[in-house]
Design a protein that fits this description.
CATH class of one domain: Mainly Alpha
Strand order of the largest sheet: 1-2
Order of helices and strands: HHEHHHHHHEHHHHH
Radius of gyration: 28 Å
Shape: globular
Largest sheet: 2 strands, antiparallel
Number of strands: 2
Number of helices: 13
CATH topology of one domain: Cytochrome Bc1 Complex, Chain D, domain 2
Distance between the termini: 84 Å
């Protein structure tokens, strides 16, 4: 009996030892020594997924390359509809190229930034580092499909943009091995200063103020409203959010509210509420093929709205066949100078269903 009790005690002790070891491991894997049981360390895969920034010293820049010629082809298919064929843009975005000279490339300071006669400040006039172009394009472009570009496609697009500013020649191939040399030719590379508080906490701040902690209100709701002249200048803002991530936009077709939105959220509109959610059929095809990047349901975006297209071709003989050909081959001139890229990857059946839905809603 004594031996059995002793054996049971040993087994119990062993079980408790294993239990507390597992508990300790779980706490360590789910937290830190300072805050046990809270959170966990990110896995290497999770770190890689988020660690995509490229620094001005090119730390974080992946290996790859792309030519100006390759970049032009990508640009015309994915970027020109918003930024113009030559980066001249249109009324939606400011120009990418322009305003820089050969002398700016030599000095590293863009003279036209101080010229009051310069009509508009372009991207190449302002950006001091080529890493900024690479990083932003890779993480945020194209507008309707962020993070869809490969490393090589990003190199090619940056090369094409630099060629528009005559920073690199038309036959240039940009890569991770020569990008530092290209940095030495950026027109505004010497236009950035670090001698201010925004860059360094020990530097002189841009503004000075005295903190006041008396009679503080309990809640402050910050909001803004559009001036009347700009309220609906380019259609309903709520319908012009890209279909990626959470979207919020004010319904600019409605008159301004009497008071700014408060804690109740009155007056806020969600872009998703203005669209019909469909998981199959031509409406889903319209979204999956990124048509919504240029065409909104009831307001002009980059191209005409679905409602405007349906109204223009209502009752016209051969409208179905005419628009099917336009979707397949692309074109411009009917609704303005901005070209619509060809959608030749669609099957004839999908193309017919898509056009029929635009014209009839069915």
């Amino acid at each position: 009996m004594f031996k059995l009790d002793k054996l049971f005690a040993h087994l119990t002790l062993a079980a408790l030892t294993i239990f507390f070891a597992q508990l300790s491991y779980a706490q360590n894997s789910q937290g830190t020594a300072k805050f046990p049981g809270i959170g966990r360390n990110a896995t290497p895969a999770e770190v890689i997924a988020w660690d995509i920034d490229v620094r001005p010293d090119f730390k974080g820049l992946p290996k790859g390359s792309g030519s100006v010629e390759q970049g032009q082809a990508i640009w015309e298919s994915k970027c020109a509809s918003c930024h113009g064929v030559f980066g001249e843009s249109n009324e939606i975005f400011t120009p990418i190229a322009g305003g820089t000279t050969i002398d700016d490339i030599k000095t590293g300071k863009v003279a036209s930034l101080a010229d009051r006669k310069q009509p508009q400040r372009t991207t190449l006039m302002k950006v001091p580092t080529v890493s900024t172009l690479w990083d932003y394009i890779f993480r945020a472009m194209p507008w309707n499909a962020p993070r869809s570009l490969t490393f090589d496609e990003t190199y090619a697009l940056v090369a094409y943009i630099l060629s528009l500013g005559e920073i690199v020649p038309d036959d240039f191939i940009l890569s991770n091995t020569n990008i530092a040399e290209v940095q030495k030719k950026m027109p505004n590379r010497n236009g950035m200063t670090r001698n201010h508080g925004f860059w360094s906490v020990t530097g002189k701040p841009d503004i000075n103020s005295t903190a006041c902690m008396n009679n503080c209100v309990k809640f402050v709701q910050i909001g803004s409203s559009l001036p009347d002249f700009a309220r609906n200048a380019h259609g309903n803002i709520a319908e012009q959010n890209r279909q990626y991530g959470p979207n919020r936009g004010s319904d600019s077709t409605k008159p301004p509210i009497d008071k700014l939105p408060g804690s109740s959220g009155v007056g806020l509109a969600h872009a998703a509420d203005t669209h019909t959610s469909t998981t199959k059929g031509p409406a889903a095809l319209f979204k999956n093929e990124n048509c919504s990047a240029c065409h909104a349901p009831n307001a002009k975006l980059v191209g005409p709205s679905i409602a405007d297209i349906a109204a223009k071709y209502k009752g016209q003989s051969g409208a179905q066949e005419k628009l099917m050909a336009k979707v397949k081959n692309g074109g411009s001139g009917v609704w303005g100078a901005i070209p619509m890229p060809p959608q030749s990857q669609l099957s004839d059946e999908d193309r017919a269903n898509l056009v029929r839905w635009v014209l009839t809603g069915q």
